[in-house]
Amino acid sequence: MTTEYKVHGDVAVITMTHPPVNGLDHTTRQGITDGLDKAQADAAVKSIVITGAGKAFSGGADIKEFGSSKALAEPNLFSVIAALENSPKPVIAAIHSVVMGGGLELALGCHYRIAAPGCSVALPEVKLGLIPGAGGTQRLPRVLGAETALNMIVSGEPVKSELLAQIPGQKLFDKMAASAETLAQEAMAFAQAVSGTRPLPLVRNLPCKHPNGDAYFQFARNMVKGMAKNFPAPLKGVDAVEAATNKKFDDGMAVEHELFTALMLSPESRALRHIFIAERAASKIPDVPEDTPKREIKSIAVIGAGTMGGGISMNFLNVGIPVMILEVKQEALDKGIATIRKNYEAQVKKGKLKQDKYEQRMSLLSTTLSYDDLRDADMVIEAVFEEMGVKEKVFKELDRVMKPGAILASNTSTLDMNKIAGFTKRPQDVIGTHFFSPANVMKLLEVVRAKKTAKDVLATVMALGKKIKKTAVVSGVCDGFIGNRMIEQYSRQAGFLLEEGCTPAQIDKAIETFGFAMGPFRMGDLAGNDISWAIRKRRYIEKPDVKYSKTADLLCEMGRYGQKTGAGWYDYLPGKRDAIPSPLVEGMIEKHRKDMGVTPRKISDEEIVQRLLYAMVNEAARILEEGIASKASDIDMVYLTGYGFPVYRGGPMLYADQVGLFNVVQSMKRFAKNPLDDAKFWQPAPLLAKLAAEGKTFN
Ligand code: NAI
User: Fold this and answer.
1) What is the phi-psi region of residue 528: left when phi exceeds 0, alpha when psi lies from -120 to 50, beta otherwise?
2) Residue 278 belongs to some domain of the structure
3) What Cα–Cα distance (Å) separates residue 164 from each residue in 119, 122, 159?
4) What whole-number percentage of the chain has pLDDT above 70?
């Protein structure tokens, strides 16, 4: 049961009891209509209060039902709202804490609404690429005016009940309760007071006009178009609210329904709904139950105050966890601390951080040159040079000084975590925490589970990731983990495309038009081409049979490391970041083609995008097969939060699903026939081939 029905004197109270937020799933909807039926049948009942138990009135539709037949199964939300409106006895919504989406639409179907202060009121459907679909776009403008309602519908942001109650002429709340504690009592008294009122007021009967409708909605469309870019829902929200102002209620409802249904089928909404679920699923690890006991992390030590060590430290200072940084030399410490200060001061200057908060954060930071000072830390994160020898020395020291039960983490991006764990006598306490640069900004945290990592260590680090507001995704141990292992295939394809006839700018533009924040060459110039050069040099020795384009090496041999040397794949004007196509680089590529005996061909943007993306997808399928990632949606989260993959496409795996895996495999077979590409690589991963053959998807 997810509802409760009780009669107090002559008032029936229907309470939604569906934790965590009284989501309106089928059972709850049925419970509400059953309660209404009982109340109608009981002659002693004169009025009805509907409310929610626990932390919300109602957070709205149950996302698990989205797109399934259950969402529409009777009584669907329309029928519940109709039953409320048609109730011969007055129905009063007693609203507190959270009233969102379908929950607000339900409340708008009641005859009266009484709200507690501090309640978050929202129609957040736009965040899932939708508009409200159960009358929200037609009823909210009738109680708040078109402009306030439109702002809420296109932003999806919550507004506090007491603020809405101050809007002159508002009809959303008939009464504000003094407090959440007195709401129930006040709602009962209100119900008794209106029990004899007839006819009963209905929101649908309220007028809804805008004095300058044409001009206002034109203005609103221009504003929203600029903000919404690749998402259709906000503009449809404008259409729906406009319909509320210039059509009869039922005709407006028909407009809402048509727009909602079309959005539900749009790839953008599918992507956003996928992300909503994927984000929550990322923290669930198949063999680590949610109730796994966690270790207490009250203090952190960081080894290395370089680019990553400083950024990593800030994450913990930001949430009030003290950090001690260790370095080999005082100068390095001073430099690292100065960078942290500079970062915070920039935030203070921009008004994003208060001066006292900044000081409070800095007061949690301490430094040392001695390992013995770290003995009390609950967890240590190593971010020293990426060399196994250096990591070995550090982990042996940590094993010597850290207290029993402390978690020992490494920020390594390419080294074998099992080997690092083996430097200690406590491999069960060792784990990888792969932050992305800049570590204080980027959302992604790859949590690398080594062979012997204990389950409670994994559970603790995942929870800690959440605490510092990261999207933590578990990866097994392999070269590059999830993200960099896939990007390697993307970069290799970018190199082959250069050899076959593309320019760096053409490739960047194609993938940026697809939606990536930055193409591979602009990205290389930003990150430093020398870094991937160093990694390739290692690969040439470790994996001599892997085919690479030589262009990136030739570029580095020219000393063109990227923005930091003022030149890379592109030219840069002093102090500027605009990428200017370089005749010198294009000449180098042309000469290289000649040396290879290649006649350049014209390559379509479509081929560029497919080769870059499908290369990642094929590698991702192997990552799944090997159990490096436990689910496809984790891979999508890695790309959305760490690599600038366009949100409206939902991640590489969802994108492949939407293209159809059969089609993806067909393209791969075509690419395998290209003698300048890597035929062996393009053999579809067995998992991909199997899913494609069965007509299935990754997600
Ligand atoms: P960095 O060169 O900026 O900083 C390394 C710091 O470690 C230096 O300040 C150095 O003085 C210090 N250090 C070196 N040996 C030490 C020792 N034995 N004891 C104490 N401190 C020592 O390097 P960065 O970029 O911060 O990288 C650190 C780690 O993070 C590496 O493992 C790297 O692969 C990884 N990483 C780097 C990313 C990046 O974008 N820079 C991204 C993700 C991971």
Assistant:
1) left
2) no
3) 10, 11, 7
4) 100
Axis crossing angle, helix 136-144 with helix 146-155, rounded to the nearest 10 = 140
- Summarised one tens digit per residue, pLDDT across range 243-276 is 999 999 999 999 999 999 999 999 999 999 999 9
Active site residue 105: yes
pLDDT at 70: 87
In this structure, the answer to whether residues 646 and 523 fall within a common structural domain is yes
Nearest Cα neighbor of 651 from 279, 284, 286 is 279
- The protein residue with its alpha carbon nearest to ligand 1, atom 14, reads 384
Interatomic CA distance for residues 275 and 535, integer angstroms: 32
Question: Which tokens in the block code for residue 692?
Answer: 């494609």
Q: In 3D, which of 158, 165, 149, 157 has the Cα closest to residue 117?
A: 165
Q: Which of 264, 284, 319 is the last residue of a domain?
A: 264
Residue type, 405: G
- Is 525 in the same domain as 620? yes
- The residue whose CA is least distant from atom 4 of ligand 1 is 306
Residue 409, SS3? strand
| Distance from Cα 385 to the centre of ligand 1, integer Å | 4
- In ligand 1, the atom with minimum distance to the C-alpha of 435 is 43
User: Looking at residues 40-59, what average pLDDT do you find?
Assistant: 98
Q: Which of 4, 65, 74, 125 is catalytic?
A: 125
CATH number of the CATH domain containing 92: 3.90.226.10
Most informative mutation of 313, 385, 400 for ligand 1 (most atoms within 8 A of CB): 385
646 CA to centre of ligand 1 in angstroms: 29
CB 642 within 8 A of CB 472: no
Q: Which residues line ligand 1 (CB under 6 A)?
A: 303-309, 326-328, 332, 383-386, 390, 393-394, 411-413, 434-437
Nearest to 199 by CA among 51, 90, 43: 90
List, for residues 59-83, the tens digit of each pLDDT value.
999 877 876 788 889 999 999 999 9
Structure tokens at 203: 């929101």
Eight-class DSSP state of 425: S
| Whether residue 564 sits in one domain with residue 465 | no
Give the closest residue to 617 by CA, choosing from 566, 663, 660, 653.
Answer: 653
How far lies 428's CA from each of 302, 435, 478, 511, 626, in Å?
19, 21, 18, 42, 22
Contact 54, 20 (CB under 8 A): yes
Q: Which of 447, 475, 503 lies at the terminal end of a domain, its last residue?
A: 475
SS (H, E, C) 345-357: HHHHHCCCCCHHH
**What was the pLDDT predicted at 540?**
94
SS3 sequence of 427-474: HHHEEEEEECCCCCCCCEEEEECCCCCCHHHHHHHHHHHHHCCCEEEE
Measured CA to CA in angstroms, residue 93 lies from 12, 33, 38, 42, 198 at distances of 12, 14, 17, 20, 18
pLDDT tens profile 424-445? 999 999 999 999 999 999 999 9
Tokens of 497: 């495309």
Please give the average per-residue pLDDT across 547-571, as a whole number.
96
Whether 121 and 13 share a structural domain: yes
Considering the candidates 85, 105, 488, 500, report the single residue annotated as catalytic. Answer: 105
125 is catalytic: yes
The residues facing 382 across adjacent strands are: 303, 410
- Count CA atoms within 13 Å of residue 498 on its CB side: 28
Q: Which of 614, 631, 380 is nearest to 482 (CA)?
A: 631
Give the residue numbers spanning the domain of 385.
300-475
CB count in 10 Å sphere of residue 214: 10
Q: What domain count does the chain have?
A: 3
Q: Please state, in angstroms and rounded to a whole number, the distance separating the CA atoms of residues 489 and 504.
A: 17
Amino acid at residue number 67:
G
